[in-house]
Amino acid sequence: MLDDFLVRAALGGTGVALAAAPLGCFVVWRRMAYFGDATAHAAILGVALSLVLSTSLFAGVLAVSLLMALAVSLLSGRGYAMDTLLGVTAHAALAFGLVAVSFVSGVRIDLMGYLVGDILAVSRQDLAIIWGGALMVLGLLSWRWPALLTSTLNPDLAHAAGMDPKREQLVLTLSLALVVAVAIKVVGVLLIAALLVIPAATARPFSRTPERMAMAAAAVGIFSANGGLMAAYRFDTPTGPTIVCVTTLLFLCASLASACRFRSRSARSDH
Predict the structure, then answer these.
(1) Distances (CA, A) of 43 to 16, 47, 64, 198, 254
(2) Which residue has the higher pLDDT, 85 or 21?
């Protein structure tokens, strides 16, 4: 069955969506969207280093993404506003990565595949990495879910309960680096942040609890990955961007439905 490239692509997209959905909820709650961008953009530098050192692409991307995330966490609050710091690091990491890739000789590099993804080229080995990373992220978040949620919603309460918000931030940082490493093949470094943020933002207006929001975001992500894959195959469009376009359309529909529901409730209350 796995000889069919569309089946492998669908499994890869589903694995990434499952990993990105609950993490994306924390990205939305903590307003860390730009943080995800900075970590993802550093992945190109990881690609270059893994090619130069002839090491695993996954290991190179994971190492550099994790270093970038840790560096941003350590530098935050030291004289620069967070959005300024993230803006500098995100674009600098991408620029240095692209320059580093240009120095790699003797290796044919599909740069567009790394930038916007190449899900149709997912191999069995890629599937193992994607699902292994996804299960690690889900396991890590499930294990730390109460502490992560408390630290996100009320750091003072977390301190009073004996929790360390900085440690939970480190858990999120590690999870984010893992998602970037497994998602680079599916949507590329330029679109990873979109797959983190948009499904979570789509699920938010219809979720009464954080757990329901995470599950709804996973459903949106899985539908978007598979729907975008089918649309790209049918219309011969780039797969990674098409997946994000489907996710964006779902977000717009959800926003419209939420606005209509709000107006309907307002009209009832007026009467």
Answers:
(1) 16, 6, 6, 20, 31
(2) 21
